[in-house]
Amino acid sequence: MKLKKDIAISDSGFLFNPSSGDSYTANPIATEILKYMQSGFSNEQIIVSIMESYEVERSTIEKDLFDLESMLSNYKLTR
Amino acid sequence: MKKKEKKIYERPLIRPLNASISNKFGRRTEWLPLTHIDGIPVVDLINEFGSPLFVYSEKKIRDNFMMAKRAFETRYPKIQFAWSYKTCYLNAVCNVYHQMGSWAEVVSGFEYEKALQNGVPGDKIIFNGPDKSKHDLLLAMKNNTLIHIDHFDELYLLTELASSSKSKPRVAIRINMDTGVYPQWDRFGFNYENGQAWEAVNKILMNDALDLVGIHTHIGTFMMTPSAYAVATAKMTELAIQIKKKFNHIITYIDMGGGFASKNTLKGSYYAGADAVPDIGEYAEAITSALLNAGFDRNNLPFLYLETGRALVDDTGFLLGTVLANKRLADGRRATILDFGVNTLFTSFWYDHKISPAQEMGHYAEETILYGPLCMNIDVVRDAISLPPLKPGQHVVAQYVGAYNITQSMQFITFRPAVVMIDREGRSHLIRKRESLDYVQKNEILPSHLKKLNW
User: Among A63, B61, B246, B329, which residue's CB has the most CB atoms within a 10 Å radius?
Assistant: First the structure.
C-alpha cells in the first residue's frame, strides 16, 4: 500500500494531508510504519523491520498492519 | 557482541484530529492502569482464580460503612443501618456488614432465609417487598421480625394470621409520596398524599392485632437530589407526630430506605459519576436536619433506619477480565471483545462503567467499542470508550461493579465467574466458586424417553 505523496509526517507522529486540510496523530510505531511506507517499503519489508526492532510475533504485526492500512484507506491517505 | 534489546510493541494506531468546538463535558482517556487491588497484582488474581473474576475489597467495604455511619451518627443520635441484601447477598459481603453492626434488609423469603442462615437474629431483620407468602409471614412473626407492609392485601392477611396465632407482630407500613422528583415512585407501599397511608395506619391502630412500631419509605433509586430526602423526611415526621396526636401512639423508628447514588456514571450523564453524585454527608444532612427540626419530644426521638446498599458497596467491587480479540467495524470504529459481557456485568445496561487497562500502556488512545463474549447483538459493555490499544490476552478492570451485579448477573451462554474477597491483611479468599456444568444442570431432569439419541 502506498501513501499519498504529499502527506507530511513529523517525527512526533503528526500527519497533515494538504489536499484535504485534515490532520491526524499516530503513535510511535504507526509513525515508524508510515515512514517506511513513504520510503517505498513493501509490506514484507515493513514486517521484517518491525520484528527486528520490537518484541512482537509475526502474526500480530501482520494483523495490525492490515488494520492500519484499512484505516489509512478509510481516511483517504493512500493512493 | 551484546544482542540489541527489542522495544515493547504496541499496536500501530492513527486517529484524526478534530478541530471542532471543544466539549467541556469531555471524558478523560482511560490509559491510567489499575494494576493492583489492595496490593495484589491483578494478573496474579487472574492466574490464580481465572478470568473473568469479581473481586471485593473488605477494607473498602468497612471504610465506606464507617464513613456513612460517621456521616449520620455525628448528626443524629439514633441510627441503625440494615444491609440491603438484594444489592449483594454474597454471604461473605453480608457478614462484613453484619460484623459492623448492620442489620439485614430483605425483600423475599429467599433473602429472609439467607439472612437467618448468616446468623442474623430474626428481630434484627427488616422484611420488605410486595412478595411475602403466608409461610414467610408466619416465620417472620415467629422470629419477631420487623414486617414492612406493602399493600392492603398483605395488611389483611397479616391481621388474620396475627389474630389466629394470638401474637402481635411488629410492623411498619411502607409509604410512597411526592418528593418533587420525577418519576414518582408510587408502586410500593401506601400513598401519602391521597390518604392511603392514613387509611392503613387507622386500620392497624383501630384493630390492635398488629404493633405499629415504624414507618418506612424508599423514594427512589440512584437519587441525585438530597433535597428530595428532606421533603420525604418532613412528610414522614409529620405522619409520626400526627399518629402520636391522634392515637397517643409512639412510632419508634422512621426507615428512610436507601437510593443514595454511587460514584458510577449513568448512561447519558454529562459528568462522570465521581464528579456529579452527592457526598453521603449531603444525604445525611438533608435527612437528619428534617428529623431534628420536626418537633419530636427530645426524650422520644425516633430511631432512623437506613437501608442504603449501592452507595456503600458499588466501589468496593471490581470485575477483572481479559481481551479476547480486536476487530475493525465496517464504519472504521475499533471494537475490542472482552471475556465478560452484559451477562456478567448486568449494570452495563445503565452505567458507563469505568474500565481501565490492568497493565502499563502507552498514552495513545483510540475510541473503542467494548463487546462481551456473547453471540448476541445486545452484548455491549461500553459503546464508546477511549482506551489504549489492547492486545488479546491483556487484562482490564471494570470498576464500581459491587452493587447489583452478583445478584442480577445471568447464567447465560456461559458460566458465572468466581468471586474473591481481599481481606484487610491483603489475603485473597475465594468466596464464590466459578460455576460448572454440573452446578448449572443440577436441577435439570431429562425424561427417560429423551435420554437415548439415535444417530
Answer: B61
Contacts of B333 in chain A (CB under 8 A): none
Does A9 touch chain B if contact means CB atoms closer than 8 Å? Answer: no
Q: What's the pTM?
A: 0.91
Number of Cβ within a 10 Å radius of residue B250: 14
For β-strands A8-9 and B395-399, DSSP reports them as: unpaired
Domains parsed from chain B with CATH numbers: 36-55+315-436 (2.40.37.10), 58-314 (3.20.20.10)
Q: Looking at this predicted complex, what is its ipTM?
A: 0.95
- B197-206 contact pairs (CB < 8 A, 24+): B197/B173, B197/B239, B198/B239, B200/B149, B200/B152, B200/B155, B200/B173, B201/B173, B201/B239, B201/B243, B203/B155, B203/B159, B204/B155, B204/B159, B204/B171, B204/B173, B205/B243, B205/B247, B205/B249
Does the distance separating the beta carbons of A54 and B12 come in below 8 Å?
no
Residue of A nearest to B328 (CA): A67
Q: pLDDT tens digit string along B72-111?
A: 999 999 999 999 999 999 999 999 999 999 999 999 999 9
In this complex, which of A56, A61, A72 lies closest to B14 when CB atoms are compared? A72
Confirm or reject contact between A75 and chain B (CB < 8 A): yes
Q: In the prediction, which pLDDT does B274 show?
A: 82
Task: Tell me how many degrees the CA angle B19-B23-B27 measures, rounded to the nearest 5.
Answer: 115
CA angle B107, B110, B113 (to 5 degrees): 100
| Residue with the three cell numbers 428532606 | B230
Across the interface, of B12, B17, B332, the residue whose CB is closest to A27 is: B12
The answer, yes or no, to whether residue A31 has pLDDT greater than 60, is yes
Question: Which residue on chain A is closest to B20 by alpha carbon?
Answer: A22
A25·B328 Cβ contact <8 A: no
Contact A33 B12 (CB under 8 A): yes
CA dist B128 and B108 (Å) reads 7
Q: What is the pLDDT of residues B202-251, one digit of tens each?
A: 999 999 899 999 999 999 899 989 999 999 999 999 999 999 999 999 99
Closest CA to B315 of B398, B258, B395: B398
